[in-house]
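User: For this week's homework, look closely at the record that follows, marking any run of repeated tokens, and judge whether sequence predicts the tokens.
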Amino acid sequence: MTDGSAPLAVVTGAAGGIGRAVTAALTASGHRVLGVDVDPAGDPEAYASLVADVAVPEQVEQLFAGIRERYGLPTVLVNNAGIYHARAFLDYDPKTYAQVFDVNVGAAFFCTQAFARALISAGRPGTVVNVASISGQSGSPDAAYGASKGACIALTHSLGRALAEHRIRVNAVAPGLVDTPMAARIPARRRDDYRARIPVGRFGTPAEVAAAVAWLADPASSYVTATVVDVNGGLH
């Protein structure tokens, strides 16, 4: 972790494959990084592990209030928390459907709201990066997951425009197939089909997604907002 004068970044879903890579990439680029996860497991060398269920708005408010009090004002937020059930459309029940949207869309909505309110109050600029998915662009056999990631992309476009006047940029990355524990839950036949259709001939790595996130969090991308960056090996 870098010194207290470095910009402070908050990464949700930090204990997962992409989350760990993002915390490491932001740390390497000079950020102080606070990783948040409902699961306290994580790499203590890469980030301070904070436990919260960001699908619960009340916990989001408590989380960001605690961060401001203990660590200062974050200026970078990466909404990476996500859930995937690999479940067929006809097998979904209302509770599981609601859970997918609460985690994949609601968490990004309310984390960004808490983050933006604090920045606007302080008159500070900031950057939000949402982790969406190719499934939100082309659909998914897991219909609830695909729909939730499509909503995440729409939220990115909407917030990028709504928060621009406050000097807060909002963008997203849309990974294709990436070698993570979450992707490992995709049925083997479907994984093989995806791999055969990827022009570069392989799945991506968490580090490749994290590199795109780090660029969007950097001032080098200061004229980029309300945009989705594909990280998918050419798969469409």
